[in-house]
Amino acid sequence: MHRLLSGPLSIENLKIKITGLPASLQGTKLVQMSDLHYDGLRLSERMLEKAIAISNEAEPDIIVLTGDYVTDDPLPIRQLVQRLKYLQSRCGIYAVLGNHDIHYPHSQTEVTDALTSIGIKVLWNDIAYPFGTKLPIVGLADYWSREFKPAPVMNQLEPTQPRLVLSHNPDTAHILQQWRVDLQLSGHTHGGQIVIPGMGPGVIYYRKFLRNLPKKVRRSLPFSRPQCLEVVRRWEWTQGLHKVKQNLLYVNRGLGTFPPGRLFCPPELTVITLN
Ligand SMILES: [Fe+2]
């Protein structure tokens, strides 16, 4: 997407308190990237290059990628990994898949294989221990897949164990309230893309406006399909940090941009320090 329509890349710096974080992991630095949508249209090479350079400058202990590497056609993943292979981190790169990465029956394998080929660990209802047993990272299957079943994974962890959870769709935070989630990292919403300052994502108001129109008229208007309007159930979690009962959810606005572009909602790279 052209810079005029996406806006410049914005770096969000966060400090997150994790109860019971071992002293050896104080100050652990994470970089989160999400929703790249590398398809030749939604993410410019320039923005991707910049995001990779900024991530490397941050010297993260770990990089987490929260899905949507491609948009439907998985083929561009092969070219994307030729860019992502320059990402540097001390304890590796961990990824979950988004709904767009499983669009076709062959997509999941194609995307997973490409990411794995450059050493990125793809978690699909899996637990990784990049820092040893003291801070596991759970990566869940996409919410819209038939395999989103957090119980068998989450129940493997002791309630006393602090943990990070990667889950593409932030709506899952509602279900994950049943377990301890010190920090859930999500994407998927692109921050709502068009945000009305002080009011939130424009889509909420557009949806209300459409509802009052006859079906025929509604269908003729742009962005009236459910894929655009029902991206999430909980629009209040479209971006930023949220307390969900005892858990914390952070929603990254993503790097890629869908038409018609972004307004007051710049693409994002997140740097998170744990303490
Ligand atoms: Fe996305």
Write a concise synopsis of the structure shown.
This protein is 23% helix and 20% strand. The protein is α/β, with parallel strands linked by helices. Strand 6 (126-128) and strand 7 form a beta hairpin.
Task: Give me some keywords for this one.
globular, 20% strand, six-stranded mixed sheet, binds fe (ii) ion, 9 helices, 275 residues, single chain, alpha/beta, Purple Acid Phosphatase, chain A, domain 2
Highest CATH level, the class: Alpha Beta
How would you sum up the global shape?
Answer: globular
**Secondary-structure element order, N to C:** HEEHEHEHEEEHEHEEEHHHEEE
**Reported CATH architecture:** 4-Layer Sandwich
Strand percentage lies at 15-25%
Question: What is the number of helices?
Answer: 9
Bound molecules: fe (ii) ion
